[in-house]
Amino acid sequence: MEYIKPEPNKKNYQQLLEKIIETWQKDPEKSERRPRLLMHSCCAPCSSAVLDYLCRYFDITLFYYNPNISTEKEFMHRVSELKRLIHEMEIDVERYDEDGKRLGAVSVVVPDYDHKEFLAIAKGHEKDPERGERCHLCYRQRLEKTADYMDEIRSKAENAADGEVLPYDFFCTTLTISPMKSAQILNEIGEEVGAGHGESFLPSDFKKKGGYQRSIALSKEYDLYRQDFCGCEFSKAASERERAERKMRDDK
Ligand code: SF4
């Protein structure tokens, strides 16, 4: 498959994430409550290991905004697997840790599917290789919408009775778990989007420390649907081409 090799990361984004968690926990004013995280989620396999790790530290809402997915059928299949995963992980209900501290239930927000939104930003980039400019636009679109939703909840919280609506502290994306995606680019886009909205982007490189391998193990454990293409029709065509080429090589 044609794709652009990522540059080595300039920063260790997973270490930055760990530092933020540690700073929160050491802050006497903050440590009494768990931070609230709005996490853009692309699919169940990528979310599995990320949830397994972050659920220990955050109250999480998954934001399944993915207009890049080529058909509504595929979109619905991926989100139903995501909902099944959080149900079977038993994290869709309120839980308590060993010290009796409440752990929030993980919920899923699903904005309406409209593939035209993605096609509009991908126009002129149909032939870009994976990890090229089209992908950068696609990451930005999904993170912008996530930050928009974070803003929406923040203004609802400001106008609601005390504690009725709680704003988020951070937003992030599961996309950095994929070895096919550059954590450097994703984090740079996330930081820019966060700065534009005045919201805090949580850095990550979830594939580090065995995160990607953990997602494969959890996908097997929960028998998750693992798609063989990223999402859009262009990635689907590239994946089919690669399969056909492999078959021709094997048949020789
Ligand atoms: S290959 Fe993936 S990241 Fe790139 S544009 Fe398509 S769906 Fe988006």
Relative strand content: 5-15%
Radius of gyration based on Cα positions: 19 Å
Got a strand count? 6
How do the strands line up in the largest sheet?
A: 5-2-1-6
What ions, cofactors and ligands are bound?
iron/sulfur cluster
Features:
alpha/beta, globular, single chain, 8% strand, 252 residues, Rossmann fold, binds iron/sulfur cluster, 8 helices, 6 strands
Secondary-structure blueprint of this entry?
Layout: H1 13-26, E1 36-40, H2 44-54, E2 59-63, H3 72-88, E3 95-96, E4 102-103, E5 107-109, H4 115-122, H5 133-159, E6 170-173, H6 183-197, H7 211-221, H8 233-251
Parallel strand pairs: 1-2, 1-6, 2-5
Antiparallel strand pairs: 3-4
Helix pairs in contact: 2-3, 2-7, 5-6
The structure holds iron/sulfur cluster.
Residues 68, 130, 134-135, 138, 230-232, 234-235 line the site of iron/sulfur cluster.
Task: Give an overview in words.
There is one protein chain. The chain has 252 residues and is α/β, with parallel strands linked by helices. The chain has one domain: Rossmann fold, CATH 3.40.50. Helix content is 48%, strand content 8%. It contains 8 helices and 6 strands; from the N terminus they run αβαβαβββααβααα. The chain has a 4-stranded parallel beta sheet, with helices on both faces. α2 runs parallel beside α3 (72-88) and α2 (44-54) packs across α7 (211-221). The chain is globular, with a radius of gyration of 19 Å. The structure holds iron/sulfur cluster. Iron/sulfur cluster (SF4) is lined by residues 68, 130, 134-135, 138, 230-232, 234-235.
